[in-house]
Amino acid sequence: MCGLSVSLRPLYAHEVESFEARFDYAIGGVLRRIEIKNPETISLHVSVQDKRRDFDWIDLEIEISSVSDTRLVEDKQLRYLDMEEGITVMFEEKKALIAVGEYDTIESALSAPLYILGGALKYQENTFSA
Question: Is 1 exposed, middle or buried (0-12, 13-18, 19+ CB in 10 A)?
């Protein structure tokens, strides 16, 4: 598997800045799919360039658990969402959020075309799927 992770690992608030920088905020990335694992756990799958791998493309799965609020779109609409600003990953108080676009607060991110708000984040690096 080319040294890619094979299981989800937690993403903590103190790691967000380096995580976003590593994947350049997913700017120009490709939203692949939304996976509803159960009513409280949702994953967003996005293809991104990885600075640690000389900007090779990988597929990133970002999972949010204890989901409390969302704005989702159908998979067939994902390709129409503008990724010029990438994605925002954020922790505020005891909440975790992922949203399409650039936002400074969870409150402002609730206007995003796609967001998932929950309690904890995990991620997994997968081999790029063309």
Answer: exposed
Q: Give the tens place of pLDDT for each residue, 40-83.
A: 999 999 999 999 999 999 999 999 999 999 999 999 999 899 99
CB count within 10 Å of CB 78 equals 20
- Cα separation, 12 vs 117, whole angstroms: 15
> What is the torsional sign of CA 102, 15, 31, 34?
negative
Sign of the C-alpha dihedral, residues 28, 108, 98, 96?
positive
From the list 24, 8, 38, the residue with the least C-alpha distance to 121 is 8
